[in-house]
């Protein structure tokens, strides 16, 4: 990609082993069919940070689905790329780049994962970055963009296809949760400033807290049972959840993007 302009800004680079395990687990399930079907199972870990752990772990988790899956870690900081190079092996490589997603030979990734990358950007920049990244996807590909805490207990992400955003997933270590709205601090950039009265995401989290409180009698059976009952209550109240009990027991809930999309104001 000689001479190509690198697009983006250097992030803080904070990373920890297993920080993105919840997102990885969801990706492996959501992308299983496409990963098995594609002739070129290459994925990109965009902005992996100061250490390559997330790229290494993503490869392992995807190879449980597709044994010849390939991960390319892309970082805008050349020093981070150099530091990651000793970890390269067949199926795992690292490249200098940004939102232009530099893959040789015109390859297009089946997945771009961008975790904790857009947090530092202005809200108004998000749509343009999303469009640029989605434009790099292979047919059937997915962009997953979101934010989590430092040790991966709380995570919220948006899944997007070439047509734009599709869904929002809330995922948490249930033993650490006080109430579902604790996840608000990890909303991705497109939503975090919209958690105010009158916005759909605020209405959703308020409803989730109410359902969580109503499910308190199930606490003696464990947080999983309480979370699942709260999720079911959300569905009964008209929220169009896209997943079911198998995912709820993992501490996840996925909602269509259209149900949480910011207002136009």
Automatic annotation (TrEMBL):
InterPro entries: SAM-dependent_MTases_sf
Organism domain of life: Bacteria
This protein's name: Class I SAM-dependent methyltransferase
Annotated organism of origin: Actinacidiphila alni
Lineage, uppermost ranks: Bacteria, Bacillati, Actinomycetota, Actinomycetes, Kitasatosporales
């Amino acid at each position: 990609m000689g001479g190509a302009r690198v697009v983006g800004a250097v992030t803080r680079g904070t990373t920890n082993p297993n920080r993105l395990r919840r997102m990885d687990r969801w990706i492996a399930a959501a992308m299983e069919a496409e990963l098995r079907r594609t002739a070129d199972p290459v994925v990109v870990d965009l902005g992996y940070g100061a250490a390559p752990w997330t790229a290494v772990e993503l490869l392992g988790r995807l190879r449980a689905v597709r044994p010849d899956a390939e991960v390319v870690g892309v970082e805008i900081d050349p020093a981070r790329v150099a530091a990651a190079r000793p970890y390269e092996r067949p199926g795992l490589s690292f490249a200098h780049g940004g939102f232009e997603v530099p893959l040789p030979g015109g390859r297009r990734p089946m997945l771009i994962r961008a975790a904790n990358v857009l947090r530092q950007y202005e809200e108004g920049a998000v749509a343009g970055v999303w469009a640029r990244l989605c434009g790099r996807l292979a047919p059937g590909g997915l962009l997953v963009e979101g934010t989590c805490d430092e040790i991966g207990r709380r995570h919220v992400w948006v899944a997007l296809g070439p047509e734009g955003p599709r869904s929002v997933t809330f995922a948490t270590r249930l033993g650490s949760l006080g109430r579902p709205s604790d996840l608000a601090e990890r909303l991705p950039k497109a939503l975090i400033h919209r958690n105010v009265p009158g916005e759909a995401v605020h209405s959703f989290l308020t409803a989730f807290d109410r359902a969580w409180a109503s499910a308190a009698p199930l606490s003696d059976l464990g947080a999983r049972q309480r979370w699942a009952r709260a999720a079911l209550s959300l569905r009964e109240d008209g929220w169009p959840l896209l997943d079911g009990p198998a995912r709820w027991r993992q501490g996840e809930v996925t909602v269509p993007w259209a149900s949480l999309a910011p207002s136009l104001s």
